[in-house]
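Late entry, evening session. Most of the bench is empty. Finally got around to the prediction I had been postponing all week. Sequence below, unchanged from the version circulated by S.P.
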Amino acid sequence: MLVTIIFPNSKIISIVKYAEGEPGGTPALIKYGVFTLNGVEYRVSESNYNHAWSFTPGVSLFVECNSESEIQTLFEALSSDGGQVMVPLDNYKGSGDYGFGQKLGWCEDRYGISWQLNLS
């Protein structure tokens, strides 16, 4: 699943792959890429180096949603197909208002990226 499909106003701007034999990667990996999610630009890269770190929920993408249907659709899409729910999508009622909005859910997609979805 490409996240640019589930977020409105999103697109892949550019992808540059490694050349055959180029240090750091293989032609299957993204040397660098640029994309937008709901109008916000992101840059990515990957390599075949053995890094001493991995993804952690200590860093997550925080997404403001404008409707119940939007937050539900995004949460289900991101947490399915190998992803996982970390904090169920739920109203703040009973647990107090954290100051973010009406509803919050936290999940991880199949690539290990952590997402916090908030209904403003």
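Two things to note before I forget:
The mean pLDDT is 89.
The beta strands are 11-17, 30-37, 40-44, 60-65, 84-91, 103-108, 114-119.
Will write this up properly tomorrow.
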